What does this fold into?
Amino acid sequence: MYYRFSIDDNIWFLRDINSKGYDSIFENPYLGFFKNLHEKYGARFQFNVYYETEGFDLSEMTDRYRDEWRENSDWLRLSFHGRYDIGEPPYINSSYEEAFEDCQSVHREILRFAGEDTLSYFTTIHYCQGSPEALRAFYDCGIRGLVGLFEDGRYCYQHSYPDFTEPYKYESEDDIYYFVNDMIINLFGLGGVVPHLEGLSHKEFLEVMIHEQYFYKDYPYHQPDFCEKVERVVKHLTESGRKSVFLEELLER
It folds into this structure.
């Protein structure tokens, strides 16, 4: 029994680390919170990253922490999510060239400032959609697995609901493995996270996630129980006997 924990829409914590000049990346409160959960529960986390946000892009990110990123890559990974936060699917009608450039831009910078061991080629694309040309571009950038909401019918990379060859994934004609997102934590109240997970206890693998922005007090939709909800999820999954893994590891089992 396994689970993977990913976080979407990440860029603000990198801007903070870059601007503050911390002695350690884990002095950033957001990243420090996840490090604490790793130390308590052995949890691993993947952060799906934008290329840019207001006042910052990844080309500005310092490489002074490169060794620290690499030293923690056994539990902390970074991956491509999109170019920037936008309120609609950015790649649903995208050209090959646009998708390739966006993905390569993020990969290039992660490799530069965090090292090869930190970069994951399994991710969630912003809004879980992409044209056939975009999906081929992502594959050519090295992407081998994508997470989506296949039961929703909209956020599934224009694939129909898959006939799974295994309980948690299927290999498609475009040579990419697809994984079902089982829980978006920020859609649940604190009291609802464990009951939802209990309803999924029959599944061999669970994919759970949350979005970065709900962590911050100055975000209009800040969730004050962000940390408590995340820890409650990780604690429940751990006490249920599930092992925290990355998707690339899951496929090797």
